[in-house]
Amino acid sequence: MVGFKELIDKSNVKVLMLGNEAIARGALEAGIGVATAYPGTPSSEIVETLMEVKDELGIYVEWSINEKVAFEIAYAAAISGIRSLVAMKHVGLNVAADPFMSSAYTGVKEGFVIVSADDPSMWSSQNEQDNRLYGIHAYVPVFEPTIVNEAKDLTKYLFGLSSKHKHPIMLRSTTRISHTRTPITLGPIPRNIRIKGKFEKESRFVLIPANARRNRLDMIKRVNDIQRDLENFPFNGVEGSGSKLIIGVGISYSYVKEVLEELGLSNEVILIKLSSIYPIPKEGITKLLRDVREVLIVEELEPVVEMQLKCIVANEGLNVKVHGKDLVGLPYEMSLDRVRKSLKKFLRVDKGLGEPVTTTNVYTSHIKLPPRPPTFCPGCPYRSLFYAIRMFIIKNRLSVIASGDIGCYSLAYNKPFQLQDIIIEMGGSIGVANGLTRFTDDVVISFIGDSTFFHAGLPPLINALINGSNQIVVVLDNEVTAMTGHQPSPTTKVKGRRRILVEDIAKGVGVRFVKVVDPFNVKEVMKTLDDALKFIKENKEPAVIVAKRRCALEVYRDLRREGIVVPTYVIDENKCIACKLCYEWFGCPAIEPLPNGKAKIDPGLCVGCGACTEICPVKAIRPSRPYNVEQVKKFWF
Amino acid sequence: MVLNMVIVGVGGQGILSLARMIGEAIIKSNENSDINVSIAETHGLSQRGGSVITHVRIGKGVIAPTIAKGDADIMLGLELIESVRYIDYLKRGRSVAIVDDRIIRPSIPKIEVPRREDALRIIGDTTFRFYLLKASEEAIKKGSPLSANMVFYGFITYMLSSVGLINKSIATDLAASIGRGRRISEINVELYTSGYQLASRLVDEEVLRLVKKSLKFKL
User: Fold this and answer.
1) For residue range A147-187, what is the model confidence (pLDDT) as tens digits?
2) What's the DSSP call for residue B66?
């Protein structure tokens, strides 16, 4: 399969591309010089893809420490005359909200596109906030692809629009756009892009009150100018005719279009394809509204277009009944089925709906299925760590609150560990624990990964020191941002880049108890927890334990590259005493129970990490063949 | 029109690669046609050994990215429990399932795993035709457990090339380009070939007619 890099000089060919790759390609075709991001599903592949080609194209691409800093860097480029892109998941914009708001006040000098990848249905997120509302809030115009195949060309166009009006623009994607692969026709990528600009000093960049008041008026004017331009926006469109109007907003358009074709009703209603979400092309839409009696707005999540449309109807005194959320529903992502149902109500058709799915003709199985939540991968160092902590809690009969965070370790919420009692946001673990230690009598352990620690964990750790929060902070350092697809974190060994260690930071800000442990070493982890518990009780201040071992997926990738084959492990059935520790308390996917209660290792899932040998009380687990353990161990650290 | 296919299984089984190979093979085989392919993937949290469904849509009428329940023509199931979990995506009595004879126990303590016979009965009851493969078993035997998806790729290549959607030699070249190292590449091609041959023996005209009907191809 052809990689993104091999396509740099290709144009006029059709290739299968992920939505996020298409957005990246569109930005390159628009001539960006700078792209930044902090990874987060579903946005990560945009900058990941640009990272692949940065050297070849001579552009500047970086993984920044968090979304706020990523935003600021891309903004710096845009006010120095270099086209730039910053990408983040929807909740990332909460972190970058401060500069985001201000960027609309100052405006920019060259095209600046902020990609917000939202996650309707919360496939990989803590909420499904609709960032189109952020656009309205900040006076940043918002656009969405209406068909996945258009993501590339829309992205490219938006850079031109932003450049023309010297104003930031938001491209809002969703999981189903970012993570859908469709054929994309490539255009040329300009070469010799400048990544050195010139910052010309202007008062608009200094948001002291006097300047901000003036900027406020300029900002309103720029957005009004953009709104006028949208009357001829090439990614909007009008199809069909009739007395009823449907507005397909963003990706919802694709569902509406397909259902109308399925019903053979394409020519009996007017369908607006709406890619410009805020502002909406007011004149064009008002004109269409004058000729219809009823309108249905089909959009995911919040009634962003519906509210704007209702304003038009009220202000213009139009006699139009506006439907939207009443028929389409508010939460979760769009589906063909949802659109079928709402169109059926809106168009009052009962027949010809293909075969709508109802509870009577969907075949539901009659057997009980076990749930299959995501789990720690075989070899994951976090499994051993949480096992050790769970054993420590049981042994000492402690009442513990596990203050959790965003990352693979969130999975410890599930059985058997159940060691994530609160997860709300990046960095929330240490921050919320600052309060829990004060307002409860439980032992509070906060869990935070290396990447999340650097993203938002430092201020709350320092707060814990100065305000005396006696929490045990466990930093799960697998030397990478694992959950989002292995982007580097400050602890990753990257050639030619400085490496920042969690333990150095903790000591540097003044933590007096800092210990580094190997999570596979269950006894050592339990002993260290014991010491930490004593320390926080005596000193009323935080203790930091850094559990350090690389992500297993990275380790096995590196081993494969070196051509080293690690044998799987086997359980000696004669030695096994059916204690169930390995499959009920440790929970490695590769270990299965046998009907007699003893355990067996599935060679199709075992990766040969050997972590289970540490927890087997009778040493019944061994490698299926001898191998050079020390040679493999090096890869883990 | 549209051929809807769901690929289901457990995160880490190579479901995304399988979907991508099918998509690439179709695009490369139809360079001068306006046939659209849409593959909606599951990323992030769902990859870590969780339940995974990928929506593959093929045809000139494809615009929307996902498949509604009750609309899928074909299921490629890389694991039995997951095949049953998503069974209501299939058109009842008018769909085809190709499923690996493998149960992966979710690693949750004290769970009850459904009986193999019950799972097979439900899949059989829902579909027009149901093929049970030994893909994982074969892949493990050959020493590349993650290559089980290649058997499926071979199987579906036979079906889609029989209705003129895929050019077999393009699909075979793609199969050979997957995987790091010569050994894995060779195993991949062997498994792909075995899947293709299996399908050429098992898939009958009635099944192909069903696929053609979804696509409304004039062949």
Assistant:
1) 999 999 999 999 999 999 999 999 999 999 999 999 999 99
2) S
- The percent of residues in chain A predicted with pLDDT above 90, rounded, is 93
CATH numbers and ranges of domains, chain A: 5-195+206-231 (3.40.50.970), 236-347 (3.40.50.920), 381-492+499-552 (3.40.50.970), 564-636 (3.30.70.20)
Buried b or exposed e, range A374-384, using 16+ CB within 10 angstroms: bbbbbbbbbbb
Partner-chain contact B63 A254, CB within 8 Å: yes
- Whether the CB-CB separation of A314 and A342 falls below 8 Å is answered with no
Q: Closest partner residue to B31 among A14, A374, A410, by Cβ?
A: A14
Long-range contacts of A216-225 (CB under 8 A, 24+ apart): A216/A105, A218/A107, A219/A104, A219/A105, A219/A107, A219/A139, A219/A167, A220/A139, A222/A107, A222/A165, A222/A166, A222/A167, A223/A139, A223/A141, A223/A167, A223/A279, A225/A165
CA separation for the pair A409, A364 (Å, rounded): 33
State which residue of chain A sits closest to B18, comparing Cα positions. A1
**Within a 10 A sphere around the Cβ of A98, how many other Cβ atoms?**
12
B44 to A604: CB separation less than 8 angstroms, yes or no: no
Compare all CA atoms of chain B with the CA of A415 and give the residue at the minimum distance.
Answer: B108
Within 575-614 of A, beta carbons closer than 8 Å to B belong to: 583-585, 587-589, 591-592, 602-605
Q: Is A244 on the interface with B (CB under 8 A)?
A: no
Euclidean distance between CA atoms A576 and A591, whole angstroms: 13
Pairwise CA distance, residues A425 & A456, whole Å:
9
Residues of chain B contacting A589 with CB distance shorter than 8 Å? 49, 104-107
Burial class, A372, CB count within 10 angstroms (exposed 0-12 / middle 13-18 / buried 19+): buried
Whether the complex's predicted ipTM surpasses the cut of 0.85: yes
Average pLDDT, chain A: 95
Contact flag B27-A183 (C-beta cutoff 8 Å): yes
Report the residue of B62, B81, B108, B117 to disrupt the A interface, i.e. the one with the largest count of A CBs within 10 Å.
B108
Q: Is A362 on the interface with B (CB under 8 A)?
A: yes
Chain B residues touching A584 at Cβ < 8 A: 109-110
| Per-residue confidence (pLDDT) for residue A347, from 0 to 100 | 93
| CATH number for the domain running over B3-215 | 3.40.920.10
Helical axes B168-176 vs B182-202, angle rounded to 10°? 150
The kind and range of the H/E element at A154 are: helix A151-165
A176 to B40: CB separation less than 8 angstroms, yes or no = yes
The residue extents of the domains of chain B are 3-215
Q: Say yes or no: A376 contacts chain B, CB-CB below 8 A.
A: yes
Distance CA A7, CA A11 (A): 8
C-alpha separations of A401 from A393, A422, A586, B87 in Å = 11, 8, 20, 40
Distance CA A502, CA A498 (A): 13
